[in-house]
What we know:
The chain is mainly beta. The chain has one helix at residues 2-20; strands at 67-72, 79-85, 92-100, 106-110, 120-123, 135-143, 148-156.
Amino acid sequence: MIKKASIVLIVLVIGMVCIAGCTSDTGEATATPTPVPVQTPAPTTTPVAPVLVPQPTDVVPTTQFVDVAASKDPITGDITVSFRGGKGQAMVSDVEVVVISGTGTQTTKYIDLDAAGDKEAVFKVDDGEATRGEDRVIVTVTFNDAKSYKIYDDVLSRT
């Protein structure tokens, strides 16, 4: 009877081991993952706010001093930047005018000092170079010695 009980006990232990999975292969079968389509959200463009905060200008040596005037037409919104000369006007090689419009558009023009007539750059609203709101104007002057100075930086509006 003890022999029968021992055999039954061994069969039960083997059965439990089989049910528990302890006799499974050590090489596990890996299930191939099913690719799940990933939906990429549509790119959104956030308009970059234009930098309409004027920054400090450079100190120009008194012997090279030149002046510009910038104005915004109260009706059309067009911007006119005029070169007004100064002690250093004979040493100026380049006058660069940059307008950053309220929409973020940046337009660069140069004032031709060699041309006859008005020494100015005009930025038109109809061409998208300026707006009827606020626009920032930056003027940089380069001299014959290749030194550049930012001489004007201001925000203009029609009011």
